[in-house]
Amino acid sequence: MMTSRIRRAWTLPLLTGVVLTTIAGCGDDTGLGKRYPVTGTVSYGGKPVENGQITFEPVSNEGANRPANGVIKNGSYKLTTALPDDGALPGDYLVKIAAKDVDDSKVTETIAQKGGGGRQVDVGKALKAAKNLIPAKYQLTDTSGLKRTVEAKSNTFNFDLTD
User: What is the pLDDT of residues 118-139, one digit of tens each?
Assistant: First the structure.
């Protein structure tokens, strides 16, 4: 009788511990390792880049083996690897940044008239005619000269782009 009570007294805390450990061990179902917040600002000529895209591409397949992307809005960005604003895996990255002024009026006109997502030819023409808002060298990791290391903590990387 006493053994049964002792066993029951330990069963609930033991099961609770197992359940909490299991829950704590489950992050998300992406199968990726822990990602850490990466935020920052992007400016060109001392002014915030209003709209753009920033990409962190892993230097190697070890450690950080997935790119992380972010949308630049009013000069600020947050990186996403798998889930919105989930950050990046720790490791070394090459960085590229694109910011263009795209005249998509023909695309939106076609959508308004015919529905759908716009014709690919119109989208292609708009992108081809787009004006770079920052030097083109920043659009490729080979020419941007930008490299950062994401650490297992909250990271802030600011980019002040020049000609």
Answer: 889 888 888 889 999 999 999 9
| Boundaries of every domain in the chain | 35-99+134-161
Structure tokens at 146: 């930008």
Tell the CATH topology of 35-99+134-161.
Answer: Immunoglobulin-like (2.60.40)
DSSP readout, the chain?
-HHHHHHHHHHHHHHHHHHHHHHHH---SS-----B-EEEEEEETTEE--EEEEEEEESSSSS--S-EEEEEETTEEE-BSSSTT--B-SEEEEEEEE-EE---HHHHHHHHHH-TT--HHHHHHHHHHPEESS-GGGGSHHHH-EEEEE-SS-EE--EEE--
Model pTM score = 0.75
